[in-house]
Each structure stands twice: as C-alpha cells, then as structure tokens.
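Suppose you are handed a protein chain with no further information: no name, no annotation, nothing but its sequence. What can you learn? This example shows the usual starting point.
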Amino acid sequence: MTIFLPETLSGDKQHTVIEIVEALAATPGVAAVVLGGSYARGVARPDSDVDLGVYYDPATPFRIDDIAHIARRVALQPPTVTDFYAWGAWVNGGAWIHTATGKIDLLYRNLAQVERTIGEAEQGIIHHDYPQQPPYGFYSVTYLAETQVCLPLFDPAGMVQALKARVEHYPELLHLHAVNDGLWSAEFTLLQARNFAARGDVYNTVGCLTRTVTTLTQVLFALNRCYFMTDKGALEMIDGFARRPANYRQAICAILAAPGSDVTALVQSVARLEALWQRIVELTDGAYRPKFVM
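A reasonable first move is to predict its three-dimensional structure. Written in structure tokens, the prediction is:
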C-alpha cells in the first residue's frame, strides 16, 4: 500500500508511522487510519506528537490485544494501551507510544458515533462534555473539525472520505444555534457574575469569567463558520478571523490575568467582559435574540 505523509514529518518519523499504519491496516476490525492533530493541521513543531486516528465499526471492532501488540513492536518502553472508552465518551481510548523517533498517539474513533455526531451538528445540536478533558471540556463539533482536516492514510471503503465530504461546508443550523445559544449562555453567566462580584466572591466570579470566555470563543468560531478543534491555539486562530472584536485575544488575556480580589476589581472585570460580549452581539447584525427577558 502507498501511504502519503506530509513533508513536515521527518524521514525517521515517516518510517515509524508507515510501519504502524501498515500493521493497523492488516488488523481485523480496523476500518480506517488517518493522520490528525498538529501534523494534519500544518502547525506541528519538531517535537510534536504524531496523532493517528484508528476508526472502527462498533459492530465489528478490532481486538485491543492486537493494538497492544503493534504498540509494543515500536515502543521503547511499555506503552499505554486502553480499552474502548477508557478515556471518556468522546476521546474514547487509544494508546500512548514512545518510539525511537518520538511519541505517537493512537486515538480510537467509533465510525457510527462520528457519523451520528455529524448528523446532529447538521441539525444544530452540539454536545459539551466538561469532564472529558481540561481546560474547558470537549465540544462535539471537534469531531467535525477532526474530520475536515484529517489525512486518510488507510480508508479502503472510502468511509472517511464520505464523512469529509459531509463537513466540507459549515452547517447553517449549527451556525445559528451555536451563535445564539452561546451568546445567551454568556449573557446569563454574566448576570450571575455581576451578583458574585458585588459580594466580593472571587471563586464564583472568576469561574463565571472563564465560563463566559470559553463560550464566547465558541461563538466566534461559529460566527466565522470555522469548526472548533481545540483550546490550544484557539485565541491565535481568532486573531485571523474576519468577524471578531478588535484585540479580542489581548482583551481576554488582560481580564483573566488579573480579575481582582476585591469588590471593585471584580466588578470592573465583569464590566469589561460584558462590553466584549456586547461587541460580539453587534457582529451578529441584529440576529441575536435572548431566550428570556431578564
């Protein structure tokens, strides 16, 4: 089989990746293998991990023992290999492999779950699983982002290519719901933040500030019809968006870096974030409507 990899992968890393992909391709139950993460997005550093998505049909999944055998063949130390869904409902298992050419992560992906999530997104349905991962949890739209940017390395039935075709264009209902629901969530959270700040409650005020910020970040991705992938580098991506408040990243970082520890400072931080929220509302050109009158 011929495997095409980006030039950003060094020769030694390419050899290791090809060895793993060929072994996975020969494993019963492996439906597809893709290159994901920073290498697929074109933002990898020389020391970046290599992420390989390993897709399976839940009706006929691969054996975990087969994955462990492949991992041990290339590992410098005993690899971590998990069962299905051992890492949570969305990052649903995989392997951490330290090889002679760097760390390689295998990430299991349930084809039925990915397809279902894309279908829900087309209807404007988004899931948010906070406990899944730090710092702000997992958003189901990440599956669409992964699908859009991944590079299929083994896809004999064309399943991944078919999914990529479905996410080529940002769904209109996803855009509408993500923007409107996100702005409403931020508005409601800021209301609570004002009350906490007035009492000098640092714990709850700062919690509301970070909750609002991550919600507004999701709104800006949706407003610009860009699938959200990860919190890492999200603010830098927003810097390049056409529809965003000027100096959004700088404003967010200034608020979060020093929210305050007394009533006056906390109230000021909330007011600054409210002003930023209002600037984003204005970017909707009147489309935003709060769910309730407060």
